[in-house]
Amino acid sequence: MKLAVISDIHGNEQALKSVLDDVSKVGATHVAVLGDISYRGAKPKECLNLVRELQAKVIKGNADEWIVRGVQQGDVPDKALSLMQTEQAWAREQLSDEDINYLHELPITLEIPLSNQSQLFAFHATPTSIFDVVSNQVPNDDLKPFIDANPRANYYLYGHIHFPYMRSFEGKKILNTGSVGLPFDGDPRASYLLFERAEKDIQVQFRRVGYDIEKACHDLDEAHYPAAARELVKGIYRTALKP
């Protein structure tokens, strides 16, 4: 079995297509998606369609919930609220009522058996919240709620922070997928994880996939993405740095 786990696509069709090409190239037999599919990118509908065509296991991220119910005060810093509400309204207009309902109905956690001895437990941000932030720099004790939520699992996997990493803790592996569409780790290439069942263990590989960033920037212009956010998103594509 080969399992590809992708997250945080954020409406970046160019990045998603390149990742899916790589997923096919490496021979992945299963795909899981850890949320944030459509919001903050030029192609919300196209990305959602691509994800749904995968017949993958999919869970909800905070940006999927924003599409459904809006970006509310307290969700983001006050100075960013108006801009992000404008982006949300634009993205929602690109989706059908059926699309919105699909996002609304997504679960928030996912369990996948990797072998007879190994199980993966996945969520977008934490096992109990799609909004809380657990950075790659937190002390180990801050990761204990992951394990407490599902002690049977061996691998705990999340997205949300757009920063890929792996850490061992209490005999478990804690991993972040990084982001397909909006990396924040200084590497503009799309990021995802590949799990492969070997004879006696599970092999984990962080995959980085280049894509046509300037085409993704052009997509924002062509789609008439909200002007106030357009250069900000282009800057993230080009630098892979959090704004």
UniProtKB/TrEMBL annotation:
Regions that span the bilayer: none
InterPro entries: Ap4A_hydrolase (IPR050126), Calcineurin-like_PHP_lpxH (IPR024654), Metallo-depent_PP-like (IPR029052), Pesterase_MJ0912 (IPR011152)
GO cellular-component term (any): cytoplasm
Family annotation (Pfam families): Metallophos_2
Highest taxon above the source species: Bacteria
Residues annotated as domain Calcineurin-like phosphoesterase: 1-196
Molecular functions per Gene Ontology: phosphatase activity
Family, similarity comment: Belongs to the metallophosphoesterase superfamily. YfcE family.
Name of the molecule in the record: YfcE family phosphodiesterase
Organism for this UniProt entry: Salipaludibacillus neizhouensis
